[in-house]
Amino acid sequence: MLKEIKEGIELASFERTVNQDQIYLFAELSGGDDPLHVDPEFAAKSPFGATLVFGLMPVGYFHTQMYEAFGDAWLKKGKMDIKFTAPILVQQHMVVTAVISAVEPVEGGKQVTVKHTCMVGDKVVTVADSTIVV
Predict the structure, then answer these.
(1) Is 35 among the domain residues?
(2) Per-residue pLDDT of the chain (134 residues; tens, 9 = 90+)
(3) Taking the CB of the first residue and of the last residue of the chain, which one, N or C, has fewer CB atoms within 10 A?
(4) In this structure, is residue 107 part of a structural domain?
């Protein structure tokens, strides 16, 4: 949980490299069966040249950032607006960061906005804005 809430505070960051076994596990848990994710031979022949990480995997990291910062309040009152800007290929190294971008007074407390970014190298691949009233 955050001890202080103000603009510029950084939330816990994550670095992950997703392998094919993790993609298979995510597919099994989510019911996803798109061959671009789960069939390396098919994906190798695609314009991407390799299987893709499910877009919701970095979103899960965004969720973890919010839960670690705001606890159960995030589960009850949080909202997230997500934009996928580029694919993530299997074995690409992701860096997931988040920073409080705004704190505004509202009825019942403060509305906190957090900007999440998932990067592969110098390329932004997924972004989100999360909001919660605390």
Answers:
(1) no
(2) 898 999 999 999 999 999 999 999 999 999 999 999 999 999 999 999 999 999 999 999 999 999 999 999 999 999 999 999 999 999 999 999 999 999 999 998 999 999 999 999 999 999 999 999 99
(3) N
(4) yes
Q: Domain count of the chain?
A: 1
Q: Is residue 9 part of a domain?
A: no
**Domain containing residue 124:** 14-18+54-133
Q: What CA–CA distance (Å, rounded) separates 101 from 6?
A: 8
Is 38 within the bounds of a domain?
A: no
Query: pTM of this prediction?
Result: 0.92
Burial environment of residue 101 by CB neighbours within 10 A (0 to 12, 13 to 18, 19 or more)? middle
CA 35/CA 40 separation, integer angstroms: 8
Nearest to 80 by CA among 59, 95, 101, 96: 59
Tokens 């979103």: give the residue.
Answer: 59
Alpha helices in 71-115 (DSSP H): 72-77
In this structure, what CATH number is given to the domain that contains residue 72?
3.10.129.10
